[in-house]
Structure formats: structure tokens, C-alpha cells
Amino acid sequence: MSKTPVHPVDEVLPLRQLFTFGLQHVLVMYAGAVAVPLILGSALGLTSAQVIMLINANLLTSGVATLIQTLGFWKFGARLPLIQGCSFIALAPMIMIGKEFGLSQIFGAVIAAGAITIALAPVFSRLLRFFPPVVIGSLITIIGVSLMPAAAIWLGGGNPAAEDFGNPANLLLGLATVTVTLVIYAKFSGFIGNLSVLIGLFVGSLIAAAFGMTNFSRVSEAAWFELSPPMAFGAPQFSLVPIMVMTLAMLVIMAETTGNCLAIGKLTGKPTTQQTLGNAFRADGLSTMLGGLFNSFPYNAFTQNTGLIALSNIKSRFVVAAAGAIMVLMGLFPKLGALIAAVPTPVLGGCAIVMFGMTTVAGIQELSRVKFEGTRNGIIVAVSVSVGVLPMSFPPLFEHANGALKLVLESGIFLGAITAIVLNVLLNNEKKTNDSVAAEMAE
């Protein structure tokens, strides 16, 4: 009897490959994963010990969130290769809540907003019909282009305010990493070729170490084992205004989750369904609730890793689940996290140029299947992509916006998605109506 073919998303690779490909995902997303607790801690004036606790808690719950999203149980989890991390969308609202109400109110709002997300999941999953190929292609393209500033910041050294940001040494290190990654990808196939990003990160780190551009002192300073207790900053407190602010952030996160699921679905050949979206939303909500209980924050899929899937062509969700397990270990064993943190940001930037570009290519490939001649799809793509990249291309444009409006305007993915959906409904539906009238008149 022949075995039933297994979809690449559900393929379980050998243990060695699960670990190495999973580690590749962790290295790609690590810098972004720890950025939220670092920025929040600095903004709220937390002590170094408190920030370290937030980072460890963040890594632990990011791993758990990734396991929920990839492996899934009951109606929770998209069961797609989606790696989860703290959402930058929620950062500004959390800083605002923390300064006005305190840290315990942040965690209370996070827990409540997570519960509301679970409740809203069936409603928002029904919106999938508003995402035809012209909208999906525009959205994926926006995702790829919007990631490039992050690549540029990493390439320059990680901190634009630093004196050495963008110095030739950082740029050359990033260029060397790009070169190694491309050579491995072009010259090798199979297992080695699929590890081109990991090899690029490793070789780039070795070059940085040889020239004194990385520091491993934090590895010896980090503890061997540390478990952040739940509610370490006191019992969560619940108030209406912080909950409303955080819920609005979660609505934007749900829009981004939709885009990420659609992008991964296209890359893996497993189209996103209404059920998939609903399960993904529930997983985001549950992970966010766990984050609030364990001193962490709202979660959603990290877009950075979409490009890695496109580049490596490894589609297995179990690889990303292995990445989740590695993050759990990093949260429990800080020395492991400190070792991975020693990868220089210019090295990450070099790999990001390749990966984020591959995400953009995925969007272009989707748009290549859209009919433009004789339709209004061209103007839909033109306007939605342009609007979507505005927050990234010139951030000061919306600096006078405040509160909820600022939260919406700063998310290019959200703006681009809304623009594409509205234009598609208005322009394409109108054209369909006109075509129907013309057909009737001809008869």
C-alpha cells in the first residue's frame, strides 16, 4: 500500500534538521524579540534586573506562543510555520499605559485584550472574502518593503543614535554576510543550501569576532538557570481605559496576523482558510493572555521569518516548533540566550537584506497572477502599496497624530490592507456592476 503524501507544512524532518533549521529561525528573529522589553524597560525607568526578567519572560513565552501557533490544539493555532514574538504594534500603547497607570495595569490590559481577541476571532475570520489575489499580493509586497528599515538599522549597527552607526566596518561586515549567504545559496543545494542564512550568520559572527566587533562577555555573566515567576511585578490590575487602548492594538495585530497567514499560506502552498484565520487569532489571544500572566506582552507572527521560509524553501511547521522549543530553553537558560545575542547586528542586517527581499518577491509573484489589462487592479495596487509604505518611508509624516489614530497610522501593513480592501470593493464591484448592465443591454 502506498503512503498518503504529506504536505510540506506537516512534514516532520529528522531531529538534526529540525534543530538547525529551527536555530536559523531563532537567530533571525532574536533581535526583534528582545527589543520590546528593552525599549519598554528604558521608557518606564525599570532597573537592569527588572529588564533582564522581562527579556527572559519574553523569550520563554515567545517559545510557548510559537508552539501553540505551530502545533495547535482544538481551535487554537494556525498549524502553519508562524514564529511568534512580542508585537511592536503594542509597544507605544504599553508605554502610554505604563506611564499613566503603572506596570501592573499594562499586564492587566494585556490579559483582558487577549481574552477579547479570542472572543472576536470567529467574527474577524469571516473577513477573508475581502482578500482576493490583488489584495493579497499588495499586502505581501507591503510587508516585504516595510521590513527594509529594520534591515538598514541592523546593518548600520542597531542604534541610529550611536556615533558609530553606519560606519564602514559595519557596512563591510554586512556585505560580507550577504556575500557568504548568496554563495552558499547559489553553490549548494539540499541541506547545506537551505542553511545559507545560518551559515551566513555564523561566518559573519566569526569575522566580527576576529576584528573585535562582537562581545561574548555577557555569556559568562549570564546565569545558568533562571525562571521568571508569574506576576513577578504584582497582581495584574484591570481598568477600562487601558483595556480599550490595548484592545485597539490587538485589532491592528489581527490585521497583521491576517497578512502573515496569507503570506505563509502562499509560500507553503497551503491556502489560508477562514478556519485557519480563526485558529490563528485564538492562538494570538491565548498567547497574549499567557504573556500578561508571565510578565510579557501581546504576541503575533514575526514577519521577518517569512523571507527565511521563501529563501530556504523549508516549509515544515515542526521546524518553527523546534524554534519555539529553543526559545523556551533560552528563557530558562540565560547563558544560551546571551550566546545567541552575541551575533552582531550588522550580520543580522546582511542576512535580512536577502530574506526581506524574498518576502517582497513573494508579493510580486502573487501580483503576477492578477489580471491588469482591462481592469482597475493596477490602480488598486498602486495606491494601496504607496499608502502602505508611507509610515516606513517617512515616519515624521504622522508625528502629530495622537492616541488611537497614531496607533493605526503607524502600521503600514494595516493602512495598506484597509486601502486595498476598500478600493477593491469600490472599484472592482462597480466594474462588475457596469459589466452586468452592459451585458443585459446587449441582450
Description of the molecule:
- The structure is a single chain.
- This protein is about 70% helix and about 0% strand.
- It has helices spanning about 15-45, 50-70, 90-100, 105-125, 135-145, 150-155, 170-185, 190-195, 195-210, 215-220, 240-270, 275-295, 305-310, 315-330, 335-340, 345-365, 375-395, 405-410, 410-440, and strands at about 85, 300.
- The chain has a two-stranded antiparallel ribbon.
- The longest helix is centred in the C-terminal third of the chain and has 31 residues, at about 410-440.
Structure keywords:
mainly alpha, 19 helices, disordered C terminus, transmembrane helix, membrane
Average pLDDT taken over every residue: 85
Q: What's the total count of β strands?
A: 2
Q: Give the distance, in angstroms, between the N- and C-terminal Cα atoms.
A: 56 Å
Strand share of the residues?
Answer: under 5%
Helix content: over 70%
| SS-derived structural category | mainly alpha
What is the gyration radius calculated from CA atoms? 22 Å
Identify low-pLDDT runs: 433-443
The neighbouring-strand order within the major sheet is: 1-2
Helix count equals 19
The major sheet is characterized as: 2 strands, antiparallel
What is the H/E order?
HHEHHHHHHHHHHEHHHHHHH
Coarse shape: globular
